[in-house]
Amino acid sequence: MTPVYMPFTYLSAATAGRLNRLVGPLVVYQPVESGISEGLTALAADGGIDIRTPITRDDERLEAALAEFTQWARLNPGKTTAGAGFFSARQGEVPFFDESTINQIRSDIKNYGTPDAGSEPDDSEFSARLFLAVAQDNDRTTDGLDNDLNRFKAMEADFLDSLDGADEAGFNRHGAGGELWREDPGARQTIQRIRAWSTLALADSGLPNLLVTTSPAVVDTLQETFAETLRLDTLATIRMSLPDDPEVPPLNAVLSDLAGQVALSADALAPFTALAESAPDDAAVTVTLLAAVGHRPAAAIAAMARGAVLRGEENGSGQATRHTLILLVQN
Fold first, then answer.
1. C-alpha–C-alpha distance, residues 306 and 284, integer Å
2. Alpha-carbon dihedral sign for residues 105, 109, 115, 121
3. Which residues contact 280 (CB under 8 A, 6 or more apart)?
4. Superkingdom of this entry's organism (predicted)?
5. Is 2 helix (H, G, I), strand (E, B) or coil?
6. Contact 234, 277 (CB under 8 A)
7. What are the two backbone dihedrals, phi and then psi, of residue 2, each rounded to the nearest 5 degrees?
8. Which residues pair with 26 in a beta bridge?
9. CB atoms < 10 A from the CB of 41, how many?
10. Which residues have a Cβ under 8 Å from the Cβ of 15 and sit 6 or more positions away?
11. Kindly report the CA angle at 320 between 316 and 321, in degrees rounded to 5?
């Protein structure tokens, strides 16, 4: 199978490495060809991800809109990143200035969230790409802050370990600073992320057939919003060890076979659930498998992009993929 990371256009090297060991290299979509981060470029060079930019028209217009947005962010005190103000806003509200150019950017970003049946496809695609570019900037900055916090926590732990008599003084060497809270990046503007990403994915002529996410909020939203439309079922949840650089990622072959089954019965799921095993917490992940039963990836993603109601699809015997599988991977 060909896995794709959704609904994000950015992932860290650590996340990519973890997912690679489970499902192999991932497709990662980009909203614009220029300005791809060094981190993603390095991952692609190492074979961990396949960067795809399905839509390339109107790039100059998109880059101009992004530059205008970034300039606005710099002029607003208290906004430390270009996307911070946008993602801290309440649903449906974007804190732009009232100047005509900024208002147009606001309109472009918001358009895809409540698609108009009469809108032009190019306008919907542009709005989706603009949103994803802003979201990516926010996600990349947040990941950098998380890395800084991790380094600080490691330094704090090393410092406490170096203190003589730390135990007698009541210091907790292993719980220094407590657990650092990490926000799920998919928890903000979730439905908009899903719709924007799906709009971009639909333009890919070689659409992947396994959707992979690390966001519980995204899965919750899919279940709340598309459960009936997509016949979305949660099939199983397992705890499994991360293999050490396997030549064949353990989930790939299992899920490829499962996606082609006529019925997703307990017997059909047995090879997946058999991967469950006891493992130390730091060497294992929790994997939840969902399926849009009877809907192939193109139809399922189209429904997520436009909120369309799918009609029944004929699953001919010649089709390798009968169901759209969605994988949630958590530490």
1. 36
2. positive
3. none
4. Bacteria
5. coil
6. no
7. -110, 110
8. 49
9. 12
10. 214
11. 90
Rg (CA), the chain: 21
Strands (E), the chain: 3-5, 26-29, 49-52, 210-213, 232-241, 284-292, 324-330
Query: Whose structure tokens read 């192939």?
Result: 296
Tokens representing 167 are 């135990």
Q: How far is Cα of residue 296 from the mean position of the Cα atoms in its chain?
A: 20
Q: How far apart are CA 92 and CA 105, in angstroms?
A: 14
- Locus of tokens 């690390």: 214
Listed residue (240, 241, 226) closest to 291, CA to CA: 226
pLDDT digits (tens, 9 = 90+) for 118-158: 456 568 899 999 999 999 988 888 775 555 455 555 566 66
> What are φ and ψ of residue 262, in 5° steps?
-65, -45
Environment class of 171 (CB within 10 Å of its CB; exposed 0-12, middle 13-18, buried 19+): middle
As a residue count, the chain comes to 331
CA atoms of 24 and 250, how far apart (whole Å):
9
> How far is it, in rounded angstroms, from Cα 301 to Cα 230?
10
Instruction: For residue range 42-68, list pLDDT tens digits in order.
Output: 999 999 999 999 999 888 899 888 888
8 — phi, psi (to 5°)? -110, 155
Q: Tell me the C-alpha to C-alpha distance, in Å, between residue 159 and each of 23, 24, 150, 252, 316.
A: 38, 38, 14, 43, 63
Helix axes 190-201, 216-226, angle to 10 degrees: 80
How far is the CA of 34 from the CAs of 119, 175, 202, in angstroms? 27, 43, 20
